[in-house]
Amino acid sequence: MIKEKLILGSAGKTHEDAITVDIDPLAKPDVVHDLSVIPWPFADDQFKEVSAHHVLEHLDDLMQIMNELHRICKPDGIVYIEVPHHSSWFANTPTHKLRFNAFAFDGWCVGTQTWKKGLKFIMVKKEITFHRSIRRYFLHKIFNKFPMAYERFWTYILPAEHLKVWLRPQK
Fold this sequence. Notes:
The radius of gyration is 16 Å and the shape is globular. With about 170 residues, the protein is an alpha/beta fold. Strands 3-2-1-4-5-7-6 form a seven-stranded mixed sheet. The chain has helices at about 60-70, 130-135, 140-145, 145-155, and strands at about 5-10, 20, 30, 45-55, 75-85, 120-130, 160-170.
């Protein structure tokens, strides 16, 4: 069976339906690789689904990482990214090198005004997540509907937890 799912940063979890990658051999991934080293050891258009759950914040060069995600994902595939929102208490740990707000991935997406040229994705979905104490009052629905207002006026008053994006490469 050919595995069409890639999980970046396996953190010791096994996935029967996916190829796992981690820098730490003790995590026992299928592939031991430092994702900061480009190119990644995968073929062009190899995966239908790529998942990066709390991985990108540990890397150095987001431009190269986004290019690699675009390269290895099939045209009809999905790249799922989850990172800590910059206002989250766990965004500021010594191992986190990058910070992300609600617009962090917009520059790589079709239909956004940006200085970035080249490879693009289609934004399938984007969501800022919050602690249940904020969700209880349905504020997350308002903040996701008006992300600019949230980032400008509310982000440090009512901090978010995560940013989740689902991207489809445009090829």
